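EI: anyone free to look at a 167-residue chain?
SC: sure, send it
EI:
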Amino acid sequence: MLSESRKVLLLNSSFEPITIVSIKKAIVMYFLDKVDFLEKSEKKISSISLSIPVPHVIKLKKYIYLKPLSVSLTRTNIFKRDNKTCQYCGSKSSIMTIDHIVPKDKGGKDTWTNLVTACKKCNLHKANFSLKDRKMNLCKKPAKPSYLMHLQKYKYKHSSWNQYIYL
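SC: here you go
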């Protein structure tokens, strides 16, 4: 049985990372003759009539044009960008919050550059004040992560992905 946590890196024919797909989708694409296996496991997926290796990295046979890929603005992705570290004090905790640098009631928006990971203590201390009002500083300036950086932090990546996502 294939575990859904096992994923496959999908590359464009130019070897640029596109996305991460399930093993099931990778195998379907293989049988539709849309991809080649670049990196595969010693383990096999078998049926009565055939046996194929479990893929780790697949590449499209034909180039597809894609607009630049971007990372969705979600709580999980903000935590991932900030390495689950409070951007005010640098602490790591199992309970983190999201804080607006410029508070919403002062015109702050939900954007990559205005949202940071904060521990509960710092978030409560800052409340709806500015950083200057509370004499607080950011550990690093928040920015929108690139799609490639997002892939590099993917939880279930296989070591064979490293050469394709520039690690």
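EI: The mean pLDDT is 90.
SC: 👍
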